[in-house]
Amino acid sequence: MMRLGCCYYPEHWPEEIWADDARRMVEMGLTRVRIGEFAWSRIEPQPWRYDWGWLDRAIDTLHAAGLGIILGTPTATPPKWLVNKMPDMLAIDAQGQERRFGSRRHYCFSHLGYRGECARITAALAERYGNHPGIVAWQTDNEYGCHDTIVSYSESAAQGFRRWLERQYQDVAALNTAWGNVFWSQEYRSFAEIDPPHLTVTEPNPAHVLDYRRFASDEVVTFNRLQVDLLRSGSPGRDIVHNYMGFFTEFDHHAVSRDLDVATWDSYPIGFLEQFWFGRDDKLRYARQGHPDIAAFHHDLYRGCAKGRWWVMEQQPGPVNWAAHNPAPLPGMVRLWTLEAAAHGAELVSYFRWRQAPFAQEMHHAGLLRPDSIDDVGAHEARAAAGDLAVLGDLGPPPKSVALLFSYEAAWMFEAQPQGRSFRYMELVFAFYSALRQLGLDVDILPSSAPLDGYKLVVAPSLPILDPALTERLTGLGVPVLFGPRSGSRTRDFQIPEGLPPGPLRDVLPITIPRVESLREGLVEQGDGFTVARWFEHVETALEPEIAVQDGRGIVYRQGPLRYLAGWPDAALLERLLSMMASESGVAVTTLPCDIRLRRAGDMTFAFNYGPEPVDITDFVGAPLIIGDRLLPSTGVAAWRD
Ligand code: GAL
Question: What is the pTM of this model?
Answer without folding.
Answer: 0.98
